[in-house]
Amino acid sequence: MDDNKAVWGALYDAAVGGGLSSIGAEHPTKANQRPQIAVFCSAAPSLRAASLAYHVDDDGFSGYGKLFRKYGFEPLFIPIAIDNYQRAAYDDENIEQLANVQAVWLNGGDQAKHARCLLTDEGEDTPLLQAVREVYHRGGVIGGSSAGAAIQGTWTYGEGTLNGYRAGLELVRKPIASATLVVEGQPDAGGCMKGFGFASELNACVDTHFRERSREVRLPLAVRSLNSRYGIGVDENTAILIRAGQGHVVGDNQVLIIANEQAHGQLGMGYPLSAGDTFDFDLCVARDAQGRAREPRAF
């Protein structure tokens, strides 16, 4: 992922308000030309682990600070995690750091911890999440990997087992205060809780590590259980950039889009999209890189 210029280039272009023409290109590195990106590692198991994810290279992967500087950003670490959220989500200094950023990044880990850190017990925005939402509403980009992408739907889900999803066990709604998607006493069942809703206008739920972790079964079940209009399954080293209801795929592998009616069918049907392909979420139309409409197919 460190060397995926297409993905990081798309994020940079979205942050500076440019088009997609410069994906993969080298970008300016002068300090006054760098877009600022606020980095949340709140899916980590502790503030220490969050800090390490930002500051320290590990097993061949760059820490987020180094990674984003490499791709032309000026990163800002937001120190919030499961063990300090009660203060950090209301801290004026943290909130002020988001005043001038062009992008926000949410790390991978446990999406229930993202929810716990940035939502109240009732599922409302904390002041810090309100500040993130202001970045979004003024045209900034909100991105994330793994848990950081999964939290962006109206609902987020996870845990459970493949056997449980194959058996069609409904997702069990978990309170924000539980800070976990594990369903006590039902290890095969997946859990769900309120997400951040940045994809709410699409009425979509998001899954990641899609083909790598055989999630072709659980995404259709989540679409049915959550009554989402769409399911978006993203492979590793791949991204879908969504602007005004239009999705554009970049990266090495695929994104699968499943419409609600397809999720209720007996066969697994959807739109597998590769780099350069697009999807119109308003019209439910997939197109290849040459602009030709694509039909759904079995996956």
TrEMBL record:
Pfam families per the UniProt record, alphabetical: Peptidase_S51
Q: Name one GO molecular function term.
A: peptidyl-dipeptidase activity
Q: What is its EC number?
A: 3.4.15.6
Q: Which organism is it from?
A: Paenibacillus roseopurpureus
Keyword Transmembrane helix appears in the UniProt entry: no
- Its protein name is Cyanophycinase
Reading the lineage from the top rank, the first entry is Bacteria
Assigned keywords, A-Z: Carboxypeptidase, Hydrolase, Protease, Serine protease
Task: Give the matching InterPro entries.
Answer: Class_I_gatase-like (IPR029062), Peptidase_S51 (IPR005320)
Gene Ontology annotations of biological process type: proteolysis
Q: Which family does it belong to?
A: Belongs to the peptidase S51 family.
